[in-house]
Amino acid sequence: MTSKKVAIASDHGGIALRKNIVSFLNKKGIDFEEFGPEVEESVDYPNLAFTVSEKVARGDAYRGILICGTGVGMSIAANKVHGIRCALVSDTFTAHATREHNDSNVLALGARVTGPGLALDIVKIWLETEYEGGRHAKRLSQIEQFENTQG
Protein backbone atom coordinates (compact mmCIF):
# COMPACT_ATOMS: atom_id res chain seq x y z
CA MET A 1 0.00 0.00 0.00
CA THR A 2 1.24 3.46 -0.83
CA SER A 3 1.99 5.79 2.04
CA LYS A 4 0.07 9.08 2.21
CA LYS A 5 3.34 10.81 3.03
CA VAL A 6 4.84 13.54 0.84
CA ALA A 7 8.60 13.37 0.32
CA ILE A 8 10.19 16.80 -0.14
CA ALA A 9 13.73 17.96 -0.91
CA SER A 10 15.57 20.95 -2.22
CA ASP A 11 19.05 21.92 -3.15
CA HIS A 12 20.81 24.89 -1.55
CA GLY A 13 18.91 27.35 -3.77
CA GLY A 14 15.52 26.06 -2.65
CA ILE A 15 15.89 25.90 1.13
CA ALA A 16 13.72 28.92 1.92
CA LEU A 17 10.90 27.81 -0.38
CA ARG A 18 11.13 24.25 0.96
CA LYS A 19 10.74 25.57 4.50
CA ASN A 20 7.66 27.58 3.42
CA ILE A 21 6.13 24.48 1.86
CA VAL A 22 6.96 22.36 4.92
CA SER A 23 5.22 24.95 7.10
CA PHE A 24 2.18 24.76 4.79
CA LEU A 25 2.17 20.93 4.99
CA ASN A 26 2.36 21.12 8.79
CA LYS A 27 -0.57 23.56 8.96
CA LYS A 28 -2.64 21.31 6.69
CA GLY A 29 -1.78 18.20 8.73
CA ILE A 30 -0.13 16.53 5.75
CA ASP A 31 2.46 13.91 6.69
CA PHE A 32 5.84 14.47 5.05
CA GLU A 33 9.47 13.42 5.08
CA GLU A 34 11.95 16.21 4.46
CA PHE A 35 15.33 15.86 2.73
CA GLY A 36 17.88 18.36 1.60
CA PRO A 37 20.39 20.67 3.14
CA GLU A 38 19.85 22.90 6.13
CA VAL A 39 22.60 25.33 5.14
CA GLU A 40 23.06 27.14 1.86
CA GLU A 41 26.34 25.46 0.91
CA SER A 42 26.30 24.07 -2.59
CA VAL A 43 24.95 20.52 -2.89
CA ASP A 44 24.40 18.23 -5.87
CA TYR A 45 20.68 18.09 -6.65
CA PRO A 46 20.58 14.74 -8.54
CA ASN A 47 21.01 12.63 -5.40
CA LEU A 48 18.22 14.52 -3.65
CA ALA A 49 15.93 14.12 -6.67
CA PHE A 50 16.72 10.40 -6.83
CA THR A 51 16.04 9.95 -3.09
CA VAL A 52 12.60 11.56 -3.26
CA SER A 53 11.69 9.91 -6.56
CA GLU A 54 12.70 6.45 -5.38
CA LYS A 55 10.55 6.91 -2.26
CA VAL A 56 7.58 7.70 -4.50
CA ALA A 57 8.35 4.89 -6.96
CA ARG A 58 8.56 2.35 -4.10
CA GLY A 59 5.33 3.59 -2.50
CA ASP A 60 7.05 4.93 0.62
CA ALA A 61 5.52 8.30 -0.30
CA TYR A 62 2.52 8.96 -2.49
CA ARG A 63 3.87 12.22 -3.90
CA GLY A 64 7.16 14.09 -4.02
CA ILE A 65 8.10 17.76 -4.19
CA LEU A 66 11.51 18.91 -5.45
CA ILE A 67 12.88 22.45 -5.43
CA CYS A 68 15.99 23.93 -6.99
CA GLY A 69 16.79 27.29 -8.55
CA THR A 70 14.75 26.76 -11.72
CA GLY A 71 13.25 23.33 -11.10
CA VAL A 72 14.71 22.10 -14.38
CA GLY A 73 17.60 20.07 -12.97
CA MET A 74 15.44 18.41 -10.34
CA SER A 75 12.76 17.51 -12.90
CA ILE A 76 15.29 16.01 -15.32
CA ALA A 77 16.86 13.91 -12.57
CA ALA A 78 13.51 12.80 -11.13
CA ASN A 79 12.25 11.64 -14.50
CA LYS A 80 15.19 9.22 -14.77
CA VAL A 81 13.60 7.11 -12.01
CA HIS A 82 11.35 4.36 -13.37
CA GLY A 83 7.68 5.12 -12.69
CA ILE A 84 8.12 8.81 -11.98
CA ARG A 85 6.13 11.47 -13.79
CA CYS A 86 7.69 14.68 -12.58
CA ALA A 87 6.22 17.95 -13.79
CA LEU A 88 7.98 21.30 -13.58
CA VAL A 89 5.18 23.72 -12.74
CA SER A 90 5.16 27.50 -12.56
CA ASP A 91 1.42 28.30 -12.73
CA THR A 92 -1.80 27.06 -11.18
CA PHE A 93 -3.40 25.88 -14.44
CA THR A 94 -0.49 23.53 -15.10
CA ALA A 95 -0.56 22.33 -11.47
CA HIS A 96 -4.15 21.27 -11.98
CA ALA A 97 -3.70 19.84 -15.48
CA THR A 98 -0.60 17.81 -14.70
CA ARG A 99 -2.42 15.97 -11.94
CA GLU A 100 -5.75 15.63 -13.73
CA HIS A 101 -4.37 14.65 -17.14
CA ASN A 102 -0.87 13.27 -16.49
CA ASP A 103 -1.17 11.80 -12.98
CA SER A 104 2.14 13.44 -12.08
CA ASN A 105 3.55 12.03 -8.87
CA VAL A 106 6.45 14.44 -8.36
CA LEU A 107 6.25 18.22 -8.54
CA ALA A 108 9.30 20.34 -9.37
CA LEU A 109 9.44 24.03 -8.50
CA GLY A 110 11.96 26.76 -9.24
CA ALA A 111 12.70 28.86 -6.18
CA ARG A 112 14.35 31.59 -8.26
CA VAL A 113 11.48 31.84 -10.74
CA THR A 114 8.33 31.18 -8.68
CA GLY A 115 7.46 33.37 -5.71
CA PRO A 116 6.48 31.77 -2.40
CA GLY A 117 2.79 32.75 -2.58
CA LEU A 118 2.35 31.28 -6.04
CA ALA A 119 4.40 28.21 -5.07
CA LEU A 120 2.06 27.50 -2.15
CA ASP A 121 -0.97 27.88 -4.43
CA ILE A 122 0.63 25.43 -6.87
CA VAL A 123 1.37 22.90 -4.11
CA LYS A 124 -2.17 23.16 -2.73
CA ILE A 125 -3.78 22.63 -6.12
CA TRP A 126 -1.35 19.86 -7.06
CA LEU A 127 -1.97 17.95 -3.82
CA GLU A 128 -5.75 18.34 -4.00
CA THR A 129 -6.30 17.48 -7.67
CA GLU A 130 -7.14 13.88 -8.51
CA TYR A 131 -6.20 12.06 -11.69
CA GLU A 132 -9.13 12.05 -14.13
CA GLY A 133 -8.27 8.83 -15.99
CA GLY A 134 -10.56 8.25 -18.96
CA ARG A 135 -9.00 9.37 -22.23
CA HIS A 136 -5.76 10.20 -20.41
CA ALA A 137 -5.23 6.60 -19.25
CA LYS A 138 -4.44 5.43 -22.80
CA ARG A 139 -1.68 8.02 -23.13
CA LEU A 140 -0.17 7.20 -19.75
CA SER A 141 -0.25 3.53 -20.70
CA GLN A 142 1.71 4.33 -23.86
CA ILE A 143 4.33 6.15 -21.79
CA GLU A 144 4.53 3.28 -19.29
CA GLN A 145 4.87 0.70 -22.06
CA PHE A 146 7.73 2.63 -23.61
CA GLU A 147 9.38 3.11 -20.24
CA ASN A 148 9.17 -0.63 -19.56
CA THR A 149 11.03 -1.43 -22.81
CA GLN A 150 14.00 0.78 -21.92
CA GLY A 151 17.04 -0.77 -20.28
TrEMBL record:
Its EC number is 5.3.1.6. D-ribulose 5-phosphate binds at residues 11-12, 69-73, 102, 112, 135, 139. It holds the Pfam family LacAB_rpiB. It is an enzyme of class 5 (isomerase). Keywords: Isomerase. The keyword Hydrolase does not apply. Gene3D superfamilies: Sugar-phosphate isomerase, RpiB/LacA/LacB. Belongs to the LacAB/RpiB family. This is Ribose 5-phosphate isomerase B. It comes from Listeria fleischmannii. The lineage of its organism: Bacteria, Bacillati, Bacillota, Bacilli, Bacillales.
